[in-house]
Amino acid sequence: MYLTLFNICAKRRETASISGHASNHGNQSILIHQNLLKGLVVGRRCFRSESEESDMGKKMRKNNPNLVSLIERLKREAHENEAPIWRDVADRLMKPRQYWAEVNLSRIERFAADNDTVVVAGKLLGAGVISKKVTVAAFKSSEAAKLKIAGAGGKSMSIEELLTSNPKGSKIRIMG
Question: pLDDT (tens digit, 9 = 90+) per residue, 46-64?
């Protein structure tokens, strides 16, 4: 018995809908033998076994409860205070960690002015020298970065602390 696979959404990586009758996928019909279904790659599309299919439709979630609560709070504050900057920070933190910003102090020294408030949606690193008095909020900060910012007369804080002190998000720059 041959099966026809159709309704494949590679963008969302959903499982293929399987039907016992012939159906067109675009202008052509793709027929695959039932025994070849597990792990078969056809035309750059990978069909997974039934055990893997059950997990395919689930939405990926972050495992860190502090990060999840921060993202939810950022979205809520963005909506309540009409501050789109917090929604932007939340969207950046929802991405996979490998795409998060890693900002060195040298970049802040180069692009920020005195008394600026900067948000880093990711990690603040201590490479470089900083001489400007800036307030920097980041999800994670290295100890070297915190010491150098304090030494220059600035302030290092978490995104949650900045959100509490400035819920409207006025006069804040995002770096990274």
Answer: 444 343 344 445 565 889 9
